[in-house]
């Protein structure tokens, strides 16, 4: 039976930790709840976990997964009645590695010196983004820090899930494309040249298609490394150019207007924009500061320019949706829902509803894209291999005819 590590709080607020056997994490949680404990974290017990968690150096930042777990645990401790200082102390003592412990220790030191939690987090910009700090400040001002942290953990988990779904959807087509390219290059550079001596010995000219493929294979062998080096240099130059504002703005705008991928990119952007803005507004952040924070997390300079124009429009009382509609970068459905939210004073809830809708649209669009890419790559690879094999067969037939 598998073993699980757990951390929980008993009825008096004392920290419980240890290992227990069970069928799954839910079984361990049920065991702890029967003892009257509040579960903080449950994870599979692995051999050498303590050794693996030791890291050299303590100056790193929190990773995304660590930030989510840290947020959930802090929300659980505060919801159980712990004060902020004690909650941070418990988390520091039970940190999964030195790096996380060092970050939490610095945050706790700042809080103990009298700084609000949002101010303490601001001193760790590599670990806590501006969105995170803005929501924490709103939670402190509204007196619901535990609830805000819980919703913030859900937001971070959704963002991570959306990014992971995009990356995982592209893995299989990318591997298939690499395998197809490798197979074709192998046939052109290693298999076809084996037939040249046969034709030379028999004094037979190569068929035109076979000669063409041999020329392509020879070019790949002779100039392939130089072409790869040139592509690498071009990629580095393009990366350097995209760090400049004007080329980056043009490239980001072009990405959002691509025929097929542009639609998916706009849906992803709409989901991120609506989720972030809705979460900020629901937690009490004013519209203009919420737009400024949302603009920073979009990651697309063309969309950031549009949101900046929307801020100016909101300042003059013309509304948010008008500027978004004018740009044409955001989907019309999102603009419609935001306009409805402005008219009914329900901008935050309707933005969250729009985020749910566009996240689902993104998931379905990625599934359709993969469903199209995989057979398309397979058919193209099959056609290319079939062409090479046909050329080989034609060469063999011509050689056989010459021998007869």
In short:
The protein is mostly helical and 404 residues long. It has helices at 25-34, 49-52, 64-79, 84-93, 98-112, 117-122, 130-142, 145-191, 196-202, 208-241, 245-255, 261-282, 287-297, 301-315, 321-327, 332-344, 347-403; strands at 3-9, 15-21, 38-44.
Domains (count): 2
The number of helices is: 17
SSE pattern: EEHEHHHHHHHHHHHHHHHH
Give, in spatial order, the strands making up the sheet with the most strands.
Answer: 2-1-3
Tell me the total number of β-strands: 3
Largest sheet: 3 strands, antiparallel
Residue runs with pLDDT of under 50 for 5 or more positions = 47-58
- β-sheet strand percentage: 5-15%
List keywords for this structure.
Receptor-associated Protein; single chain; extended; 5% strand; 17 helices; 2 domains
Give structural notes:
- A hairpin with a 5-residue loop joins strand 1 (about 5-10) and strand 2 (about 15-20).
- Helix 3 runs antiparallel to helix 8 (about 145-190) and helix 4 packs antiparallel against helix 5.
- Strands 2-1-3 form a 3-stranded antiparallel sheet.
- About 75% of the residues lie in helices and about 5% in strands.
- The protein starts with a strand and ends with a helix.
- Mean pLDDT is about 80; it is low at about 45-60.
- With about 400 residues, the protein is mainly α.
- It is extended, with a radius of gyration of 29 Å.
- It contains 17 helices and 3 strands.
- The relative contact order is 0.08.
- It has helices at about 25-35, 50, 65-80, 85-95, 100-110, 115-120, 130-140, 145-190, 195-200, 210-240, 245-255, 260-280, 285-295, 300-315, 320-325, 330-345, 345-404; strands at about 5-10, 15-20, 40-45.
- The longest helix is centred in the last third of the chain and has 57 residues, at about 345-404.
- The chain has 2 domains: about 5-155, Type II secretion system (T2SS), domain F (Receptor-associated Protein, Up-down Bundle); about 155-404, no CATH class.
